[in-house]
Amino acid sequence: MKKKILTIILIILGLTLVLYFEIDAINSKNKSEIKIKVYFARKNIETNSIIKKEDLKYKLIDEANIEDDYCKEIENIVGKYSNSLIKKNEIVLKSDLLSNIKKRVQNKIIPFGKAQFTLELSAEEANGWQINDDDIVDLMFCSSTEKEESKRFFGVKVCSVLDENYKKIDIISEENRPKYLVLVSMDEDVQNILVLEDHGKFKVITLGK
After folding, report:
1. Which is an annotated Pfam family here (predicted)?
2. pLDDT at 166
């Protein structure tokens, strides 16, 4: 009796394994039949240069061969800065990209107590930006009493989008374009607000000190 039960269990396990491998094979086949656009560099893209549409080309690749770091949407590439050299015919990776704001504001030192810092951008750089709630911008802040070598680094997270009256905008549309995009970092009781104004100007306001 025990042998029969053991035999039945082994048969069930065997059938389960066969079914699993068949389903896996079907899924792999389906993925290989689905083609996804993956973007490549049409020419060498130098480090810290703005990526333009004409710098890119795409190929259709089997979904099964797609990796998470591949760029599949051109909207997420055009207008970004290259974080490193992207050679001709290389796949453009997410890790190759640096957001416009991060590129322009990084390594700028803003002492606490300074009321305003403005950064000029070209019209091309300022147009068409999209800043989402989960975007991170890297800024460097240091206290005015601290020495240059004792800089403190803060990741600045987008927390709100405000209109020209500094009132929060919940829904952004073509008819309801914000004048300001506000990013905030906190250090003890000090609040640093980075404001993106019209014509691509940044203004940093320090509150609470």
Report:
1. SAF
2. 53
